[in-house]
Design goal:
There is one protein chain. The chain is 85% helix and 0% strand. It has 116 residues and is mostly helical. It has one domain. Helix 1 runs antiparallel to helix 4. The protein is elongated, with a radius of gyration of 15 Å. The chain starts with a helix and ends with a helix. 32% of the residues are buried.
Length: 116
């Protein structure tokens, strides 16, 4: 899971940078996916460097994914986004949603393995 966290983080960083450059935005909000991505990378690296805290870091990454999904959905629904903002929000929802699904599956598998 730490590698997946790093990969999703890198993808979100790319989304944030591409959307900011493509939209010629001067608003810091266009970089929100990149900020979330940096947090995913930090959590993934922390889990890889310190295996003793890996489960805590990955639970933090799963919580971050849930917050990113809810925040993006709330903004999407509340504002009715269009253009590049819509692209950024949908990409954030898809990437973090996939990560959250994989994280939950991983947590369930680990629990089953411990019980066996």
């Amino acid at each position: 899971m730490p590698l997946r966290s790093i990969l999703v983080g890198c993808a979100l960083i790319v989304v944030g940078i591409v959307v900011t450059l493509a939209s010629d935005s001067s608003s810091a909000t266009s970089l929100i996916p990149a900020v979330i991505g940096v947090l995913f990378v930090i959590l993934g690296l922390a889990a890889r460097m310190r295996p003793a805290i890996a489960h805590h870091a990955m639970h933090g990454a799963a919580a971050l994914a849930l917050l990113a999904i809810l925040g993006s959905l709330g903004s999407l629904i509340g504002r009715g986004s269009t253009g590049w903002a819509l692209v950024a929000q949908l990409a954030t929802i898809v990437l973090t949603g996939a990560f959250l699904y994989l994280a939950i599956d991983s947590f369930r598998s680990a629990r089953r393995a411990r019980a066996a």
